[in-house]
Amino acid sequence: MIGVLLRRIWIILAAAVLAAVGAYLYTRTLPEYFKSTVNCVPAQNDQSSLGGAMGGIGSALKDFGLTKLGGSKGEQYEFIVVLFTRSIRDSMIKEFDLATEYELQGKPMQSVRDEFESNLEVELRAEGNYEISIWSKDPAKAVKMCKSFVGYTNQVANRIARMDAVKTSGYLEQRVSKIDSAIAALTDSLGRYGRDYMLFSPVDQAKASASALSEAKANILKQETLLGLLERSYGTDDPQVRAQRSMLSEMEAQLQRVQTEPGFAGNFAITDAAGIGAKYVKLTAEFEAYAKVKAFLLPTLEQTRLDQMKSTPSLLVVDEPILAEKKDRPKRSLVAAGAGFGVGVLVIILILGIEGWRSIKQRYGKS
Fold first, then answer.
1. Which distant-in-sequence residues (6+ apart) come within 8 Å of 294 by Cβ?
2. pLDDT confidence of residue 66
3. Where are the domains of the chain?
């Protein structure tokens, strides 16, 4: 086989040279493209108020005793999705009249997009930065296109952020409205309790009532002891003993009225104090909890309203695009070398195939 190839080496070399020259001449007819690259980094996530608010809302609500924020964090889109949006490409095509530059006037818009896509490269580096490269026939135009591409990207990112802020503020407004309704209902309930039961500070009132009751019971026990001593000393029919017994009965009746009738600690009986006081404390705790949640949500709501109006860059330029000093495409030498090598390999395969076919015919022809 090697001998066959060596005998026809000039045919192989001639074909390869002709292919390389032809490919080189063809690339001379192709337009020259210049490359410009801009190096960018995405801005810090959670620039809005939600970044800090969502970080502490879970523990805050847990401390308030209402609920615990469960579940995983909401999924966030990757910023590279914005870089590949169709709206950015259409804006670039319209601004720089790329249909004319690509000689695709009258062709479908998708054809222009595909051609622009072949002249655009977005690369995400391991360090987290983006390198955006654009090729154009005019080196100055390539620089402008890189800057405009970053500008359009920031516009789309800001539009998405504002949409997210609108959705968030709408939800927060609903929550604040519901909290206001709950606070109003709790205020009415607490007001009714205050009017109907004369209850305004259950803990303090309970302490005062307990102290007064213990004092009254202690006095009754003292009088019972005194009555026992008088009975032992003077007998049960003594006038002094009867007077002591009458006074003791009056004190016991008074204690019974205090425990079963309203008016001592409030407009309710002492026997009902536990249920009424517990409900009042529960209403008070709910009122304070809702008030704290509202105080927490209001600044966040105001910040999200500001986020709807502000416009901040989402892609920050680290290295500005510069004017290309020489063309980047087409790479004529590389194309010519590739064409020559490919044709040379093709000719070698063709020669080997022809020689193999001849040897097979000769072998079977003799037999």
1. 176, 179, 180, 183
2. 39
3. 2-183+314-339, 196-296
Which amino acid belongs to residue 362?
Q
Query: What would the two tokens of residue 43 be?
Result: 């801005």
pTM: 0.54
Smallest CA-to-CA distance from 332 within 17, 120, 26 is with: 26
pLDDT (tens digit per residue) in 188-211: 877 776 666 665 555 555 555 556
Cα distances (angstroms) measured from residue 261 to each of 102, 183, 254: 97, 32, 10
Q: Which residue has the tokens 């410009």?
A: 36
Spatial contact of 268 and 197, defined as CB atoms under 8 Å apart: yes
CB 328 within 8 A of CB 119: no
The architecture of the domain spanning 2-183+314-339 is 2-Layer Sandwich (3.30)
DSSP string, 44-85: PS--STHHHHHHHHHHHHHHHTS----SPPPP---THHHHT-
Residue 202: the pLDDT is 57
Banded model confidence at residue 91, pLDDT cuts 50, 70, 90? very high
**pLDDT value at position 209?**
57
Outline where DSSP puts E strands in the chain.
Answer: 34-42, 120-124, 130-136, 315-319
